[in-house]
Write a structure and sequence with these properties.
19% strand; single chain; alpha+beta; 86 residues; 3-stranded antiparallel β-sheet; 2 helices
C-alpha cells in the first residue's frame, strides 16, 4: 500500500459478484488474524493481511525473507480456511 508504506496480501475475487459471495460466505466465521472486507466501491479484496507494517529497505534480505514467510503463511491459512468453509 503506497499511501501507508506497507506490504499487504489480499484474497481477491475475479469480479464484484464473486467478491460479495465470498465475503458473505466468510462473514461471521472466525478468520483469525485477518481482516474480512466489506463490499464497497473501491474495495477489491475479500480478506486482507498486513505482511509488513513499516518496511526497512536498508535490510533488504531480511525484508524479503519476512515477506516471503508471511505470504506463505497467508496462502496456507486461506487455503485451509476455504477448504473448511466450502
Amino acid at each position: 500500500m503506497h499511501e501507508q508504506g506497507r506490504f499487504e496480501a489480499w484474497l481477491g475475487g475475479s469480479n464484484k459478484k464473486i467478491q460479495a459471495e465470498y465475503i458473505e460466505l466468510l462473514g461471521g466465521k472466525n478468520i483469525g488474524k485477518y481482516k474480512l472486507s466489506k463490499v464497497l466501491p473501491g474495495v477489491d479484496s475479500i480478506i486482507e493481511s498486513i505482511l509488513v507494517e513499516q518496511a526497512d529497505f536498508v535490510q533488504l534480505e531480511e525484508l524479503k525473507m519476512e515477506i516471503e514467510k508471511k505470504i506463505l503463511e497467508f496462502i496456507n491459512d486461506i487455503t485451509a480456511m476455504l477448504n473448511e468453509k466450502l
